[in-house]
Amino acid sequence: MGQVAGKVALITGAAVGIGAACAHLLAREGAAVVLTDIDETRGRATAAAITKAGGKALFLPQDVTDEARWPTVVSETEKTFGRLDIVVANAGIAIMAPILEMTLKDWQKQQAINLDGVFLTVKHTIPTMRRHGHGGSIIMLSSVAGLRGSAGLAGYSATKGGVRLFAKSVALECALAADNIRVNSLHPGVIDTDIWNKMPLGSTPGHNAPPDPHAIASAIAPMGRTGHVDDIARGVLFLASDASSYMTGSELVIDGGITAGGTRRPT
């Protein structure tokens, strides 16, 4: 208990799934948490659940691609909790479609949320972290799709690969500034979340059924199962805490062995 006691964390896309799990765990470990999301109903419910359990939580509605909203989110965080130490850039979407069938509109929407949103997160939170002088940790949610290619997910892989190298470059800029802000990327594998049911499948005829994450994990993950949101939240906690104080510009992969190499499961 108390691995991030006294710290303040901002988590984007925190209404449900990985973001909500991160908010719950960071709050249990002593952080005050600010949750943002476009889903106001579930975002407020998640914040209320954290408060009911004895934690400190604030929900702020936010579209991470709307730059005009960012100064208000940051100022409300400071006004409520007085500082900012941890930033979890989690908001993202996945659109599955062969690249020749993906529309430019879908490509741009995915880029806007998965890359522009992360850029804006960093641009508007680092000045606040520097001003308070405590240093801190920025965790960018990438994916195993940011480490290896995947047919049908070329657009998504492009965004998550971009996040991976963006994190490294920002880590170097912070190190050169000697601001004690660490920046790392986290790469989940096949995780059992609502994103699979919400995944737009492009315009390909006959591709209307959402992917089954359990079937996918059984086929490609050496451990033979999906991961859980708490698996990723524990990785975020590690990167947010002083336990990872000598890590920056690194990649934390939590994928059930997918990127380790191929394997044939017993039949």
Sequence-ordered SSE layout with sheet pairings:
Layout: E1 8-12, H1 17-28, E2 32-37, H2 40-52, E3 56-61, H3 70-81, E4 86-89, H4 104-132, E5 136-141, H5 154-177, E6 181-188, H6 195-198, H7 213-220, H8 229-240, E7 251-254
Parallel strand pairs: 1-2, 1-4, 2-3, 4-5, 5-6, 6-7
Helix pairs in contact: 1-2, 1-8, 3-4, 4-5
Look at the helices and sheets and give the structural class.
alpha/beta
Report how far the terminal alpha carbons are from each other: 42 Å
| Widest sheet, order of strands | 3-2-1-4-5-6-7
The dominant shape is: globular
Tell me roughly what share of residues is in helical segments.
40-55%
Helix count from the secondary structure assignment: 8
Radius of gyration: 18 Å
List segments where confidence is low: pLDDT < 50 over at least 5 consecutive residues: none
Task: Describe the fold and architecture.
The structure is a single chain. This protein has 267 residues and is of the alpha/beta class. It is 43% helix and 15% strand. The protein is built from 8 helices and 7 strands. It has helices at residues 17-28, 40-52, 70-81, 104-132, 154-177, 195-198, 213-220, 229-240, and strands at residues 8-12, 32-37, 56-61, 86-89, 136-141, 181-188, 251-254. It has a 7-stranded parallel β-sheet, sandwiched between helices. Strand 5, helix 5 (154-177) and strand 6 (181-188) form a beta-alpha-beta unit. The mean pLDDT is 91.
